[in-house]
Write a structure and sequence with these properties.
about 10% strand, DNA polymerase, domain 1, six-stranded mixed β-sheet, Alpha-Beta Plaits, DNA-binding, binds 2'-deoxycytidine-5'-triphosphate, 29 helices, Rossmann fold, alpha/beta, 5 domains, four-stranded parallel β-sheet
DNA sequence: TCTAGGAGGGAG
DNA sequence: CATCGCTCCCTCCTAGA
């Protein structure tokens, strides 16, 4: 397994020395603390207290109080008897046996002792999961309820709570956000001088992270010879992580348990301990921070970071630093092991890390001293001992693509790099991937990887937000899927709201059972072999509105025309993220209407303006698909006949309720503008009188050569071109003196012709309304200008009224839709 | 020639 | 019993303007 180049434990002596010094330092610190606070009562005299897991107050605070009040703090619990008391919120399942005889108390015990100034009996504060606690709290544990399926409301959360990949992604996103936050706030944590490539890069990664942490929780030594794997259960479950004893049998991360057990019948399966992974990860990043040895620490994942030192350092110091990091992390994490690769580039650091594992470190320098330390190697050495697949960004597919037609066995990087010139790489793999590989072959970082160092702001910025579930997806009907999509969108919307962002492009991606795949795949409730399909949709306005997004997503699902029973996976993505403006923030409109009295009679309500129109209800059966196809066409291309939709058997939803962009939402939006417009209306008319400004003095932009006929505007037939023109028109007139009255009436007549075109013209009308309101939003800074008020008024009094009328015409849900009332006066 | 959508890939 | 196959990002390819 190990060829001696990265012999484990070589630095052990340094390790032990380090610890002796470390303990003395801690003791000295504690003594000093006591001296300073000499007057405090020695409540915890004789107590040796260990704090386990996440606590409130946190570990550091508890430690301070315990030490200041005469106790001893046990940093690392080698044996249960090392401590007289263990402080924890609850006892991890894995520790129940081991700690059965311990006094495991909640942090509240410490606080209560402090308050009363004396040592209190611990039993009333016994932590959940101890036998003592079981005597006090009558079995508050919530045993597994009925298993949830994808049709149940709680499924998504339930699934995510157990999904390792979800945790991995969530942690990573949080770490990136935290990094960026700090960087933007303080300009700290990243490199400042980017002129030259940094001197030393240390890639630090836990050995078999989950396996080690779960192992320790279950009472195993971190370097145990017992083969361990972390997995959920039975035979078709994934091995998330296996320790190095298990790897000697050929077991690998991601392998199925059945295969793993074939390779190693003694394999011990351990449960996931997500809380513990998080705790260890926190300690890990704290250590890197506390060492104060780096110019930058970049998060890679929950168990992995890249640390950079941007000043010259001799090889010996690099080695010492590696030893120090490894010792410190082990100390602070109850014995977890990190390995480290140190090199002048990201790629070499990665390869060095690979060779350093398990339980070691490796420093790569251009010209190592011959016959020197085995922990110091040259780039050439790494290339001779690592394979193509070890290079970052080179996975199975790319490796196969590159080596297609070459003899099949494993290749070292040194060998493969001899086979291809830069241009051959580019021919085979594409311009960017080819060039990248050529760089990697020279030990240089490609452009993309170096972005992390060169432009962390862009590199760490979030560009999308998505959620997907490809397990347990088994539906019988489309309404069930609709309900699921609603929940998934709701889930994402709450995330995007936490981020204070909006999206203007959304994507639905589905996995559909391959025609040759069995109905039920080998993996229980797995997706099996699937074909994947995706459909993206641009939203006219950036939004965070679940109704709008949900409608789009459900429409997109119909476009992909996947039979409900064939669906095996669902993903929803939000792209084109922007910071939310205040108008996207919590909606006052949504407050429960019934509980709040309207201030005025329906006079304020939009329905007042349209009551004279008889409601005409169109129902439709054929899918939204037709709508989209129509939507794509320009206005002069033949549109499909709309009537077939009305004659078909009714669906329960109204036509408008199913429009990809929910008209109701649109109108709610406009209603707010209406409020604003109303309040500014008087002002603006007053101004007009004062200054003698009249609309007709505006520059006349539109040609008055309108030919009445099949819905054209300014002789344009293409909807896109019309929109362009109108956009330009609005934008220009907003900047200057507002729209010319004649232009406005030409435009109004165009809108009226759209309306008389029937429901099939509704999208065009809607998109015009959206366009105007979009322009107003874009030019919000002109909010005080006369021109702005004029457009706003036009939107509200002309466009909105027409839209409103159509709504009356084409939907049955008039009451619900228009019974909105902005609760602006609510305290 | 450029763009956008969609497919695919990699990492952890 | 099972099992929890996510999520981000980049790159490539191709159809259509
Ligand atoms: N297919 C995978 C790969 C990884 N992980 C999780 C479990 C790992 O513990 C953790 C870190 O991934 P690593 O690639 O760093 O793998 P390990 O830490 O397990 O092993 P190694 O020593 O090779 O780094 O991510 C996972 O659940 N499924």
């Amino acid at each position: 397994m190990d060829d001696g180049h990265a012999a484990p434990n070589q630095g052990f002596d340094g390790y032990r020395e380090y610890f002796v010094g470390k303990r003395q330092l801690q003791k000295a610190q504690e003594d000093q603390l006591r001296e300073v606070c000499g007057a405090r009562p020695s409540i915890f005299r004789g107590c040796r207290v260990h704090v386990n897991g996440r606590t409130d107050p946190d570990r550091e605070e508890l430690r301070r109080e315990i030490v200041m009040h005469g106790g001893t703090f046990v940093h690392y619990l080698a044996r249960p008897s090392d401590a007289t008391h263990i402080v924890a919120e609850h006892v991890p399942t894995a520790k129940r046996r081991l700690w059965r005889v311990c006094k495991v108390v909640r942090p509240a015990w410490v606080l209560a002792c402090l308050r009363s100034g004396k040592l209190l009996p611990w039993q009333p504060y016994a932590a959940a999961g101890t036998e003592a606690a079981a005597g006090i709290v009558a079995s508050a544990g919530s045993p597994q309820g009925p298993r949830l399926t994808c049709k149940d409301p709680g499924f998504i959360e339930d699934f995510f709570a157990k999904s390792r990949l979800h945790h991995l992604s969530t942690w990573k996103a949080a770490l990136r956000e935290k990094f960026l936050d700090r960087y933007l706030r303080t300009n700290e944590g990243a490199l400042n001088d980017l002129r030259a490539p940094p001197a030393h890069i240390l890639h630090v990664d836990f050995d078999c992270f989950f396996a080690t942490v779960s192992g320790i929780k279950a009472g195993y030594q971190s370097k145990t010879e017992v083969p361990l794997a972390v997995c959920h259960g039975g035979s078709s479950s994934d091995v998330a992580s296996c320790n190095y004893a298990a790897r000697e049998c050929g077991i690998r991360n991601g392998m199925w348990v059945s295969k793993a057990q074939e390779l190693c019948p003694n394999l011990v399966c351990l449960p996931y301990t997500y809380d513990a992974y998080e705790t260890v990860s926190n300690s890990f990043y704290e250590v890197l921070e506390d060492l104060k040895a780096f110019d930058a620490v970049y998060p890679i994942s929950v168990d992995e970071a890249v640390c950079v030192i941007d000043r010259p350092l001799d090889t010996l110091s690099c080695q010492e630093l590696c030893i120090r990091i490894r010792a410190e992390v082990a100390e602070r994490t109850g014995g977890c092991v990190v390995s480290i690769g140190c090199a002048p580039s990201l790629v070499l650091a990665r390869l060095a890390l690979k060779r350093a594992k398990p339980d070691g470190y490796l420093v790569c320098v251009k010209e190592p001293i011959k016959g020197g330390d085995t922990q110091v190697v040259s780039p050439a050495h790494l290339f001779e001992t690592c394979t193509l697949r070890d290079l970052p960004g080179i996975g199975r597919a790319i490796a196969e693509k590159l080596l297609l037609g070459f003899t099949g066995h494993e290749h070292t990087i040194a060998q493969v790099s001899q086979l291809f010139s830069r241009s051959e790489l580019i021919t085979r793999l594409g311009s960017i991937t080819g060039a990248k590989l050529a760089d990697l072959f020279q030990g240089l970082d490609d452009v993309e990887s170096s972005r992390m160092l060169r432009n962390p702001r862009a590199y760490f910025a979030r560009k999308s937000l998505s959620a997907e579930i490809n397990w347990g997806i088994r539906f019988d009907s489309v309404p069930e899927i609709d309900a699921f999509l609603d929940r998934l969108v709701q889930y994402l919307v709450s995330k995007i709201n936490e981020l204070c962002m909006t999206t203007s492009q959304i994507v639905l991606k589905i996995a559909r059972r391959s025609s040759d795949a069995p109905i039920e795949p080998p993996k229980y409730l797995g997706m099996g072999d699937c074909d994947s399909f995706s459909k993206s949709c641009q939203l006219g306005l950036a939004t965070n509105n679940p109704g709008v997004i949900s409608a789009e997503i459900k429409a997109a699902f119909r476009m992909l025309s996947c039979p409900a029973k064939e669906l095996r996976g669902i993903a929803v993505q939000f792209l084109k993220l922007r910071e939310a403006s205040t108008s996207h923030m919590p909606r006052q409109l949504r407050l429960p209407f019934s509980t709040i009295k309207p201030l005025e009679t329906p006079k304020n309500r939009m329905k007042a303006s349209v009551t004279e129109l008889p409601p005409v209800v169109y129902k439709r059966a054929t899918p939204i698909k037709d709508f989209f196809e129509r939507h794509k066409r320009t206005s002069n291309s033949p549109s499909p006949d709309f009537t077939h939709m009305m004659s078909a058997p009714a669906l329960c939803e109204s036509f408008l309720g199913e429009l990809p962009t929910d008209l109701a939402e649109e109108i709610r939006r406009e209603h707010r503008i209406y409020q604003k417009a109303r309040s500014s209306y008087l002002q603006s008319s007053r101004k007009k009188v004062e200054t003698g400004v009249h609309g007709n003095t505006s520059e006349h932009i539109l040609e008055n050569s309108e030919i009445l006929g099949p819905i054209t505007f300014q002789n344009l037939t293409s909807q896109e071109k019309i929109k362009s023109l109108v956009r330009e028109w609005i934008s220009q007139t907003l900047r200057s003196d507002g729209p010319n009255h004649e232009d406005l009436s030409l435009f109004t007549s165009y809108l009226d012709r759209l309306i008389s075109g029937g429901p099939r013209r509704l999208p065009a009308l809607l998109s015009m309304a959206r366009l105007i309101s979009d322009q107003l939003r874009i030019h919000e800074s002109y909010g005080d200008k006369q021109s702005f008020h004029e457009w706003e008024e036009y939107l509200v009094r002309v466009v909105l009224v027409r839209l409103n009328r159509c709504k009356q015409l084409y939907t049955q849900n008039v009451e619900i839709l228009f019974d909105i009332y902005p609760q602006i006066d609510r305290p």
